[in-house]
Every structure is written in structure tokens, then in C-alpha cells.
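Wed. Picked up where I left off yesterday with Flagellar basal body rod protein FlgB. The coffee machine is broken again, so keeping this brief.
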Amino acid sequence: MAISFNQAFAGHDKMLEFRSARASVLANNIANADTPNYKARDITFGSMFDEAKNKLRLASDDDQHIQGSSAADDDSGLFYRNPSQPSLDGNTVDMQREQAEYAQNSMRFDTSFMFLDRKISGLKKALTGN
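Structure written out below (C-alpha cells, as returned):
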């Protein structure tokens, strides 16, 4: 029986990619908390999934076939947050919310990493017999 890594990792590898991308977006918001007119951004797993799905190309076996492609740009998974209390300088970053979201994202990253580590350990034990 062949081992499929897509099935073996149960999506935890993709979740780590998402958590890393979200940490970057949240850190960017925190870094720009004092920048006038900066708009806070965020990303969801669903938006990243849709972005990846849109980037898939259709297979064609003839030059006369229409090429299926997406016009999505690199920021298509990001969205702007609605501010709960907009500031006078136009900045929409709520530092307490950003820090809480970053901490929660970090804990979820650690959890996904732990699950992935246990999956890999189980596969190694199955292969080596130890």
C-alpha cells in the first residue's frame, strides 16, 4: 500500500501555510499601527482556498482551446477590516484586537504543528517498526 502524503498529513501542512500567512498580515498591521491612513487587513482560510482554486489552470491539448486562467492578483485573499473605532488620522488598526488575533493565531499554529509532528512521528514508527 502506497503512502499518500496529502492523506497522511490530513491538511495540517496547508493549515501551517495559512497560519504563517495570517501571522505575516497581522504583524504588518501591528507594525503600521501609527501610520496615517493605513487600513488594517486580514485573511481567512476560505479566501486563501478560493485564491488557490482560482489559480488552477485548465488542461488543454490543442492550441486552439481557450486557456483557463484567473485574473486574481496577489492580494486577492486579503480583505480590509471594518474598524470598530476609526481614528482621526484614518488608521483602522485596533492594537488590542491585532495583538489578541496574533496570539490566537500563534496558538493555533502551534496546535497544527503539534498535530503534524505527531503524524510524522507515527509514519516514522510505522516505517521503522520502533
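Quick read: The chain has a mean pLDDT of 82.
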